[in-house]
Specification:
Layout lengths: L1 E5 L1 H9 L5 H9 L4 E7 L6 E6 L3 H14 L2 E6 L5 H13 L10
Antiparallel strand pairs: 1-3, 1-4, 2-3
């Protein structure tokens, strides 16, 4: 999941030339071999949210760097989402993995 804030200039352009942005966002994500699942405008701390996936983190960061360099969006926040099954497998792995890790405080 990626959240961001639009720049003032981007808002100005959207008011003057209304656009859903979905085709532009989809093409941008696909140019980094990603897949757009959902795109939302948001009102609150962030102005937009996409649920998307990329084959690896480098492609995701590349996409975000490209968008940031264009100047239309700022203050990106990314959250890695897991399906319930992926979460279950992660917890299972945590329970099965032997480690000498200890927290700094106990």
């Amino acid at each position: 999941m990626v959240q961001w804030q639009f720049s003032t200039d981007n808002f100005r352009n959207l008011v003057q030339n209304p656009d859903s942005r979905i085709d532009t966002v989809r093409k941008g994500i696909e140019s980094f071999e990603g897949k757009l699942h959902h795109y939302f405008f948001a009102f609150g701390e962030h102005d937009g949210v996409v649920l998307c996936e990329f084959p690896d983190h480098e492609r995701c960061v590349g996409f975000l760097a490209m968008v940031a360099a264009k100047g239309g969006a700022t203050n990106f926040k990314t959250t890695v989402l897991l399906t319930p099954e992926e979460g279950r497998r992660a917890f299972e792995r945590a329970g099965q993995t032997q480690t000498t890790y200890r927290p700094a405080v106990s």
